[in-house]
Amino acid sequence: MAKKKASKKKVAKKVATKTAIKQVTKPTAEKKAQTFLQAKRDFAAKQALYFAKRFPR
């Protein structure tokens, strides 16, 4: 019985760590996506400005 209890504890610990990791990593992933979108927007704006200056209509 002692072995079973230990394994249950281990499983519980693993699950707990996994959930903790998920909770930690999820916001960072969202942040990364946000920064990526922001960079994309900035780049598009820069490009538009550059082309407007370089090739006036």
Give an overview in words:
Residues 1-24 are annotated as: Disordered. Residues 1-16 have a biased composition (Basic residues). It is a single chain. It is rod-shaped, with a radius of gyration of 25 Å. The protein is 93% helix and 0% strand. The chain starts with a helix and ends with a helix. The chain is an all-alpha fold. It has a domain at 27-56. It has one helix at residues 2-54. The model has no long low-confidence stretch (mean pLDDT 79).
Distance between the termini: 82 Å
Oligomer: single chain
Helix count, per DSSP?
Answer: 1
Strand content: under 5%
What ranges have pLDDT less than 50 throughout 5 or more consecutive residues?
none
Q: What number is the mean pLDDT?
A: 79
Major sheet size, sense and barrel closure: none
Give the beta-strand count.
0
Shape: rod-shaped
The level of helicity is: over 70%
User: C-alpha Rg, in Å?
Assistant: 25 Å
User: What class do helices, strands and sheet pairing give?
Assistant: mainly alpha
- H/E element sequence: H
Biased composition (Basic residues): 1-16
Region (Disordered): 1-24
